[in-house]
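FORM 7B: Structural annotation worksheet

SECTION A. Query
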Amino acid sequence: MENFEDNDQKEASVLERTFHISAQGSTVKREIMAGLTTFISMAYILFVNPSILGAAGMDKGAVFTATALSAVIGCVLMGVLANYPISIAAGLGDNAFFTFSVVLGMGIPWQKAMAGVFVASVLFTILSFFKIREVVIDAIPQDLKYAMAAGIGIFIAFVGLQGGGLVVADKSSLVAIGPFTEPTTWLTIAGIFIIGILMARKVPGSIFIGIFATAILGLVTSLIKMPTHLISFAPSMKPTFGVGIKNLASLADIQMWAVVLIFLLVAFFDTAGTLIGLAQQAGIMKNNKMPRIGKALMADSVSMLAGAVMGTTPTSAYVESSAGIAVGGKTGLTAVTTGFFFLVSLLFSPLLTVVTDQVTAPALIVVGVLMASSMREIHWDEFEIAFPAFITVIGMPLTYNISYGIAFGFLTYPILMTAAGRHKEVNYIMWIMLFVFVLLLYILNILPGN
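SECTION B. Predicted structure
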């Protein structure tokens, strides 16, 4: 009996030394519960990511495994290195850009596109190591960061509306409302209401629970076929592992560097705003700065690199971490716990056949709502700020290309700020970015599919 107690005390001591739990006013039990809450809130990515990347032609089983393992790596590194209660997994905006802009839009095979992701990941890690990310992030005006997040959110919601059959193509008006005679469309509508009601009632893990409930409804109504089994070993990553490295020769084409640059830029700015917002919620910010931000960015970079090797698009910090923080998560033990549950989830890959486009569509739409909420922070009363922000937001869904939306904002912001007599507020890096995006738009315009 004494040996068991001694072992418990030793384990608690190790956790205390690693995460400084008591100093942060928390407990081991609270941190573990926070980690579980965060996992439940973001576990939908295990099914949504294979669905989106599967549309690009990638093996869904391999992507499922890569998604889970890259999340494990990201969460553990974030927890151990930075001691933040912030979890990492494959980003929705990045996978949407990969599939709908690069593969389907530009006509680039997914194998070559993964080479672009890998190179961007390597550059991303180098930039993080030399702290260049911190410098550039500080130079980007906050309003444009909010606009980028909102634009990606609306784009993701649009993808969800399409996948769920609520929006369809139309020759006369480009888009139109989908046919309500399709039973699967009503499955999407049911899913939207289920998640919406859960979100309104502030139920932890609303999106994950909503996906589960929608899948059950699909099974009960025979709109979805029952899987042959529920538990199995994790699918092999052989179809996707190292594919990006094997296709590095494709980078000899100058057009591929436009893809690399966009992946680098999207990943560059995606995590920054999320980290800052979550750090403020968790009380981590000190004098308007994040301690250990370099370690946090390095954790993000390494997980992105690992994901690129295994076969998934860039990872990023998840806003759903706020669910765990809300129930008391304050240290890295929360993130490590989330990583543990992602590891356990590898046993449940057969559920992929149950999670159809109509099941994931409601999740995409609701996540879009959450991301679009950042628009409230934009200074709409100042036209020189409002216009670049607005054109960034609408540019993504209306051109069906995330890169164009980002480019529109970066091209107009320095010019309008200068016209308003506020040129001193524009960092020189923004002028450099303007010329970078002029070149980028030219390259994108001559890519196949444009």
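SECTION C. Observations
The first helix runs from residue 2 to 19. Residues 24-445 form one domain.

SECTION D. Sign-off
Analyst initials: ____
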